[in-house]
Write a structure and sequence with these properties.
By secondary structure, the chain is an alpha+beta fold. Among the domains are: 164 residues, Herpes Virus-1, CATH 3.30.40.10; 116 residues, Zinc/RING finger domain, C3HC4 (zinc finger) (Herpes Virus-1); 83 residues, no CATH class; 124 residues, Ubiquitin-associated (UBA) domain (Helicase, Ruva Protein, domain 3), CATH 1.10.8.10. It is 25% helix and 19% strand. The chain contains 21 helices and 26 strands. A hairpin with a 5-residue loop joins strand 6 and strand 7. The longest helix has 17 residues. The radius of gyration is 31 Å and the shape is globular. GO terms for molecular function: cysteine-type deubiquitinase activity; zinc ion binding. One of its GO terms (biological process) is protein deubiquitination. Keywords: Hydrolase, Metal-binding, Protease, Repeat, Thiol protease, Ubl conjugation pathway, Zinc, Zinc-finger. It is an enzyme of class 3 (hydrolase).
């Protein structure tokens, strides 16, 4: 023991007592998913407070030179031990729906016995609390304080759980109490919302002052909204908006454009009621029980949780956890020496990817909490984060990225407009009017109404059967646009929009649009059965581009005729009209464009142009007038953000293309991404250097074709996974995943991984297909 005491004395300076704010990783290995319950326990460095499993602690010791580690191991209590101790004080009743935090369910302390000791490397000499009692005071006090501090400190995972359960603390908006609401007679229906400007049907926000509905902010990759809610605030000054689809009896997502943050509105029920929305009619629904089936273990049979693409160590850790099989083992029987159970426990240790979930959800108002979340929204959020943080030549998001071709035909001029946009998920509509069991549904509705009137128990619900072919037909049929601004007719008219694929990705993700709202404003999920096929051929939905003989809608009004012998002078714009538009909150350059392209014909014409072009990607880009070399305040050598350049280049564009897009949009990343996708044809002719060759040619290379980097190929796919939502609305429920492995369907349900003899493919929410290569 004297030798151990001497070793401790020599490394005493590397043993620290945790201070408030120190991050203590005592629940999970930094390089694997080993925990104190794993075989070999967990070793916590007593200097850095990082945790390591038994297979990685030697590596850390070798690289860091650290010798003193706190070893924590837990074993499950025997069943007799858990039920013994009748004289013990009664356990506190949980007061919060949470696990492992104050007032919640304290599972670990109730089910495990814990052993703690100091281990000295490289010889793994063990030091217990009893051993410390015989050592010099200076050693005993420092080591004892460090051990006690580490054991009493909140672990990082515990802190994350508290944060996620408690959610983000939002401040009460200074506008909420005295918010003025207009008595304009507006009543918001429970469904069928559209942005008043661009007809977008998702990411919609209702202004709490006037009840008008607009789309939200546009994300860097072109997804999200078109900024019309923000523009409405800039025009009117009405500060608060509520996100449609988030309203529950407990509140909703409220954003203050003036305070530029998510806020609390203590008078939200009153503000919503002003526009006919009763938020207190929402009801919570109990979750269905799971069915036990045979458990599966072995290589790769482990629950696949959220990924975090922003750290090589995290990716390596997750990859090893998923593929090694180390965590795909039956849960151990409680106690040492106990007789093995005659039946398997049916669960496994698995992977609790708390660190990954916290990293992916950091700063997000929904995904940083443990509130009910939407799998499709989370997947898109995760893909956006991958796009932002991928700086290497390999971008995993490319496997899902595809181009969508939208063809709009003006019915007055019969001229067409083609645009392309990037997408990652195919959203499949559910045409309820195409159900094949209409009579059965009508009879069920009649019985339900009779039960409601008589007070009898409601009958069993009947699920609508929708053919998959009907969903695909609803996806591909033309959409009528009633307020389309035609650049050919210079007026609003009717147009038809047809959506097709401009490319097919390696993996096609399909979302069945099941979630909607009832007439009582209660969020609900369409109870439908769709005969989703195992194989899918989308070849017939490939876009064709401009057809022979088809005329295109002009992009802008034609400039005045010019001849080489005549000096072109910049036209004079009506400053009063420009000023009036600016006072309404529109960007200056957009106002100048409106006046120029309507020929100085007055405020009404200019205003119509603005409303018809608000969703143009270059709406706010500088106007270059004939007779000028550049827009006011810009120069060819304008500073370009290297970070913005790297982001656009990572999406598959060249540096020259990215530079041109950023210069055309005043170095604003979001607008630059929109601009580059809307000017693919223009990008074919890059700027030519003084020697008559492009920069790429001067380096002996050839510029790749313009456009985003997509992995196009045949449109034939096979189903290999699907995610199902168990529950009746977005406000409650539970997700499970089915994956086809070695021609067998396997269900992943938290810690339970089981064979699925009859996978409910007709009830899925997200479907994952991979390309069939012939």
């Amino acid at each position: 023991m004297a030798e151990v005491s001497e070793v401790l004395m020599s490394v005493l300076s590397t043993i620290r007592v945790p201070r408030p704010g120190d991050r203590v990783h005592k629940d999970e290995c930094a390089l694997s998913f080993s925990s104190p319950e794993s075989e070999g326990g967990l070793y916590v460095c007593m200097n850095s407070f990082l945790g390591f499993g038994s297979q990685y602690v030697d590596r850390h010791h070798t690289r860091s030179g650290q010798r003193a580690y706190l070893h924590i191991s837990r074993t499950r209590k025997k069943e007799d031990d858990e039920n013994s101790g009748s004289g013990d004080p009664p356990k506190k009743k949980p007061t919060r729906l949470a696990i492992g935090i104050e007032g919640g369910f304290n599972v670990e302390q109730e089910q495990y016995e814990e052993e703690v000791k100091v281990v000295l490397f490289p010889d793994r000499q063990e030091v217990t609390s009893d051993d410390l009692a015989t050592m010099p005071d200076v050693v005993r006090e420092r080591v004892s304080l460090a051990m006690a501090g580490l054991m009493s400190a909140d672990s990082v995972s515990h802190a994350l759980q508290v944060q996620q359960w408690d959610g983000e603390v939002r401040a009460v908006s200074r506008h909420a109490v005295e918010l003025k609401q207009l008595n304009n007679g507006t009543k918001i229906p429970p469904s069928g919302w559209r942005c008043e400007v661009c007809d977008l049907q998702e990411n919609l926000w209702m202004n709490l002052s006037d009840g008008r509905v607009f789309c939200g902010r546009r994300y860097f990759d072109g997804s999200g909204g078109n900024n019309h809610a923000l523009l409405h605030f800039q025009q009117t000054g009405h500060p608060l908006a509520v996100k449609l689809g988030t309203i529950t009896p407990d509140g909703a997502d409220v954003y203050s454009y003036d305070e530029d943050d998510m806020v609390l509105d203590p008078k939200l029920p009153e503000h919503l009621s002003h526009f006919g929305i009763d938020m207190m009619t929402m009801e919570k629904v109990l979750l269905p029980k799971s069915i036990k089936i045979q458990g599966l273990y072995g290589d790769k049979m482990v629950f696949k949780a959220a990924l975090a693409p922003f750290s090589t160590a995290h990716i390596s850790k997750l990859g090893y956890g998923l593929l090694s099989g180390e965590y795909s083992k039956p849960a151990p029987d409680p106690g040492e020496g106990s007789e093995p159970s005659s039946e398997p426990r049916g669960d496994q240790v698995g992977i609790a990817a708390r660190m990954f979930k916290a990293l992916v959800g950091r700063g997000h108002p929904e995904f940083s909490t443990n509130r009910q979340q939407d799998a499709q929204e989370f997947l898109l959020h995760f893909i956006n984060m991958v796009e932002r943080n991928c700086r290497s030549g390999v971008n995993p998001s490319e496997a899902f990225r595809f181009l969508v071709e939208e063809r709009i035909v003006c019915q007055q001029s019969q001229k067409a407009k083609y645009t392309q946009r990037v997408d990652y998920i195919l959203q499949l509509p559910v045409p309820m009017d195409q159900a094949t069991n209409t009579e059965e549904l009508q009879e069920a509705e009649r019985r339900r109404e009779e039960a409601d009137s008589s007070g009898a128990p409601p009958p069993a619900p009947v699920r609508a059967c929708i053919p998959f072919t009907a969903c695909m037909a609803a996806l591909s049929e033309p959409e009528t646009l009633t307020d389309f601004w035609s650049s050919a007719a210079q007026a609003k008219t009717t147009a038809t929009k047809t959506t097709r694929f401009a490319s097919f990705p390696d993996h096609m993700v399909i979302q069945v649009k099941k979630f909607t709202f009832g007439q009582d404003w209660v969020p609900k999920k369409l109870d439908v059965s769709i005969d989703v096929p195992d194989t899918l051929d989308l070849t017939a939905l490939r876009g064709t581009g401009q057809q022979p003989g088809e005329e295109l809608l002009p992009e802008v009004a034609p400039p005045p005729l010019m001849t080489p012998d005549v000096e072109v002078k910049a036209p004079v714009l009506d400053d009063s009209t420009v000023s009036q538009l600016c006072e309404m909150g529109f960007p200056l350059e957009a106002c100048r464009k409106a006046v120029y392209y309507t020929g100085n014909t007055g405020i009404d014409a200019a205003m119509n142009w603005v409303m018809g072009h608000m969703d143009d990607p270059d709406f706010s880009a500088p106007l270059v007038l004939p007779g000028t070399s550049s827009a006011p305040g810009t120069t060819p050598t304008e500073s370009i953000s290297e970070e913005h350049l790297a982001t656009i280049v990572s999406m598959g564009f060249s540096r020259d293309q990215a530079t041109r897009a950023l210069r055309a949009t005043s170095n604003v990343l979001e607008r630059a991404v929109d601009w580059i996708f809307s000017h693919l044809d223009d990008l074919e002719s890059m700027e030519v250097s003084e020697g008559g060759r492009s920069a790429a040619e001067s380096e002996g290379s050839r510029e790749p074709p313009p456009g985003p980097k997509v992995r196009d190929g045949p449109g034939k796919y096979e189903l290999f996974a699907f995610i199902s939502h168990m529950g009746t609305s977005t406000m409650c429920g539970h997700y499970v995943c089915h994956i086809k492995k070695d021609q067998q369907w396997v269900i992943f349900n938290d810690q339970k991984v089981c064979a699925s003899e009859k996978p409910p493919k007709d009830l899925g929410y997200l479907y994952f297909y991979r390309r069939v290569t012939e």
